[in-house]
């Protein structure tokens, strides 16, 4: 009798192992499919690079792209065009900073890494998922607002 129970335990252990392997396989397939969809979607949204504007000047295409990126991001939760909400209004930022390449780089870094203290005690959250190029386009749009 004892050998029967041992065989039964082995069979049960194999069934559990098979269930685990099956679930792991399903998880892997689902994760791969989701990753592929996300990669495909992000690859389709990339556009050919626009012509660069002279140093210190923003091209109309960069400004329009920056406005579009802001409209699709969480920026408008804390910022508005001409009204201070949690963070400063875009017009106030544009009044404080001239649209130089150095200021664009400085502000793009703040967008990517977050920051606090310049406009008040409430910190701006970091946006590490943005590319540096997209952050610069967003800043160029903000600095173009008058």
Describe the structure.
The protein is an all-alpha fold. It has 2 domains: 46 residues; 85 residues, Cytochrome c-like domain (Cytochrome Bc1 Complex, Chain D, domain 2), CATH 1.10.760.10. Helix content is 61%, strand content 0%. The protein is built from 5 helices and no strands. Helix 2 crosses helix 5 and helix 4 packs across helix 5.
User: What's the CATH superfamily of the largest domain, by name?
Assistant: Cytochrome c-like domain
List the total number of helices.
5
The fraction of residues assigned to DSSP E strands is: under 5%
Instruction: State the helicity in percent bands.
Output: 55-70%
Radius of gyration: 26 Å
Query: Structural class, judged by helices and strands?
Result: mainly alpha
Low-pLDDT residue intervals, each spanning 5 or more residues: 37-43
Q: End-to-end distance, in Å?
A: 89 Å
Topology-level CATH name of the largest domain: Cytochrome Bc1 Complex, Chain D, domain 2
Give the SSE string.
Answer: HHHHH
């Amino acid at each position: 009798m004892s050998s029967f129970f041992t065989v039964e335990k082995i069979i049960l252990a194999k069934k559990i192992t098979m269930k685990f392997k099956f679930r792991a396989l399903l998880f892997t397939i689902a994760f791969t499919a989701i990753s592929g969809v996300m990669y495909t979607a992000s690859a389709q949204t990339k556009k050919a690079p626009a012509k660069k504007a002279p140093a210190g000047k923003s091209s109309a295409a960069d400004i329009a792209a920056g406005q579009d990126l802001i409209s699709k991001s969480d920026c408008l939760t804390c910022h508005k065009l001409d009204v201070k909400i949690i963070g400063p209004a875009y017009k106030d930022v544009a009044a404080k900073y001239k649209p130089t390449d150095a200021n664009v780089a400085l502000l793009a870094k703040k967008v990517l890494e977050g920051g606090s203290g310049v406009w008040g005690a409430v910190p701006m959250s970091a946006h590490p998922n943005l590319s540096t190029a997209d952050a610069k386009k967003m800043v160029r749009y903000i600095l173009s607002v008058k």
